[in-house]
Amino acid sequence: MTGAGIEKAIEIAGRVEAFVRAEIIPYESDERRDHHGAPTDELVAEMRAKAKAAGVLTPHILANGVHLSQRETALVLIKSGLSPLGPLAVNTMAPDEGNMYLIGRVGTAEQQAHFLSPMVVGSARSAFLMTEPWELGGAGSDPSMMQTTCYLDGNHWVINGRKRFITGAQGAKVGIVMAKSEDGACMFLIDLPDPAVRIHRVPNTIDSSMPGGHAEIAIEDLRVPADRMLGQSGEGFKYAQVRLSPARLSHCMRWLGSCIRAHEIATDYACRRQAFGKTLIDHEGVGFMLAENRIDLQQAELMILWCADVLDGGSLGTVESSMAKVAVSEALMRTADRCVQVMGGSGVTGDTIVEQVFREIRAFRIYDGPTEVHKWSLAKKIKRDWDKAQS
Asked: Cβ–Cβ contacts within 10 Å for residue 107, how many?
């Protein structure tokens, strides 16, 4: 990371923040939502048109196609998260941001032209089809349990399986499908919709920020041209690691921005609201909650930047991203909870985004691996390191 690079990122982040605060926050009361409470594609398209006009669409990828470093990306994505609608508006949201990163790193020139280009310009949403139904013994936090299969038939791969909790599948134009061949895990790029990829249902979930929800999908004899496999057969888990560590961190970045905003709202409320003869913030119980918020927000930011530097150094950052995911998601959960508590009755209404941020952060503790899975993985690493030290 160069001084010029970080200065450029600071400038981009400043423009993103100004745009989100001036243009996107007013959309938070817009009623164009689906029956799950998520923004409609019409609303997303309208916001993206404004982002394009303001020069802040897909701000983490420069005009020459170069992706910002992870530390530079952090500066930008934190600002995009100042509204739950911000990442959608400027095209930094999940799963698209992670999918763009993966296709940019692993995809061929032809694959990038067909699948990545429309995502970068904001005209196509995407979905990452990995998680499977537990009732069928499918993959969740343990991807080695993959049940979806693929086999080569002439110059096409044929895929069959069931998927669950596939974010944004409804309305997506690009899909990345994980399946297993005789060689092991594989990844495929597909055009959506496809009659062989059938959305069974979109369950209601605690969160509501992502268009398309989290669908359950049946894949029945999906034929994919051989040249649309990402990389090589059997190397899907390796490519998943290329995507997952930065994607975990991107979640941390965006939701840190939302919790910063929730804290601003709670602080404004506590400094205006009078009770028992003085403003709420002057009551120690309330003031201390806001002070603890500041501490958690600062620690979360430092954890993000530390992990970003590890990734920028060339490491996969598997251990570090697990640590960051646990620390940041738990810190933000405490922050969001305190914001609700400080605001009392107002905090549990939809009058501000505080209630939504609380719901979103609760789901974030499960996205990209629950806290307990990351702790278990870290404990295994600690034991391996101990065993190695003994020998």
From this structure: 22
